[in-house]
C-alpha cells in the first residue's frame, strides 16, 4: 500500500461522503490531514473521528478560501472537493444559480490550486486533485450546472498540469460515477430511477465513497509521480 508519511493534505468538502472518505484514507496512509467544510458541527465530528484538524470555510466565498489557506499553511496534497450544484432542467437555470455554481464548483478549484501552488513549486513536490463527476463525459439532463462547470474544472486542471509538470507537481481529476452518498437522493427521484441506472452500470451496483477515495489516494502518492493532466473515472464501467 502507498505511504504518505510526512505529507500534509488539505481536503475540502470533507464533512461527509467522498470528501470524508478521502480524508480517512489519506490519514490511514500517514498523511497529516486538515479537513474543511462549511458546516461546523458536522466538520467537528468528522475531524474528531479522523484525529485531524479542521477549518470551517464556505468555498463559494473567495475571502473564506484566502482565510482557509492562511490558517492551514503550506500543504503537499490538495483535494479540491465541493458539494454538487442544484438540480433542474437546463432551460430553467437562473443567472443567480449559474453564478452560485460558478463560484462554488469552478472558482473554488481555481482559487485553492492557485493558493497552494507557490509552496509546492518551491519544494519540487505537490499533488493537486479535484473530485468532479461522471457527468463531465456523459451529461445528465437534471444536472446542467454540474455538467458544464465540472467540465470546466477538468480542462482547467489539464491546462495547469502542462504548466507545473516540470516543477514536480501533478494535477489530476477523479470523476466518480454513481456512488452511494446522500447526493444520490437528489438525482434518483424514485426507486425505478435507481433500478434503471443500475441496469446501465456494467458493475451492476453503486460505487462506495471508499473506492473513490482509494483512487484519489493513488494519485496523491509518490508512485503516481508520472501521471498528470488525467481524468480517472471511478464509475463501474458506466462511461465506457
Automatic annotation (TrEMBL):
Domain of life from the UniProt record: Bacteria
Pfam families associated with the record: adh_short_C2
InterPro entries for the chain: NAD(P)-bd_dom_sf, SDR, SDR_fam
Annotated family: Belongs to the short-chain dehydrogenases/reductases (SDR) family.
Protein name, UniProt field: 3-oxoacyl-[acyl-carrier protein] reductase
